[in-house]
Amino acid sequence: MSIPCLLHKSSPTAAYLSYHPEKPSQKQPRKKWFEYSLRVQPHHTDYAGVVWHGTYVSWLETARVECLRSMGIDFAELVKLGCELPVVELSLRYHRVLRLGEIAIVKTRMSAMTGVRMYWDCAIESSDRQLVHVTGKVTLVAMDREKGKLCVNFPLR
């Protein structure tokens, strides 16, 4: 049995996701950055103590999930309903390395939504915000996990 990607109308998640970005009277994508800090741990690095490039991708995904949570959208609730938000495009620019023990600020924000696509900006900065380590853009789509198709009933449009 297929689980439609619809949320209970009274949930805060449904209220947020049902807006239409093209209508100025409704809530727009997040303009402020969602931020959190972290300290580079040994398991984030290679043998030289430099953060492995794939670690940044993991940090950015954590930031997106927590940003959604801060907006009242529980990712676990979406998964229970059979919805997924896979990455369909990822573009990162590595400006400078982070090293073991350093503290960084991971930043993300949803820049736009069109149809079933969610566009995100991301950055990782030094704790004093003077250096940029990584910048990028990520595109997600709403998918019905059981059908393996775009979630046309997902109230993102």
From TrEMBL:
SUPFAM superfamilies documented for this protein: Thioesterase/thiol ester dehydrase-isomerase
Molecular function terms from GO: fatty acyl-CoA hydrolase activity
Keywords: Hydrolase
Keyword field contains Hydrolase: yes
Listed Pfam families: 4HBT_2
InterPro entries given in the database record: 4-hydroxybenzoyl-CoA_TE, HB-CoA_thioesterase_AS, HotDog_dom_sf
Similarity comment: family membership: Belongs to the 4-hydroxybenzoyl-CoA thioesterase family.
Name of this protein: 4-hydroxybenzoyl-CoA thioesterase family active site
Protein species of origin: Crocosphaera watsonii WH 0402
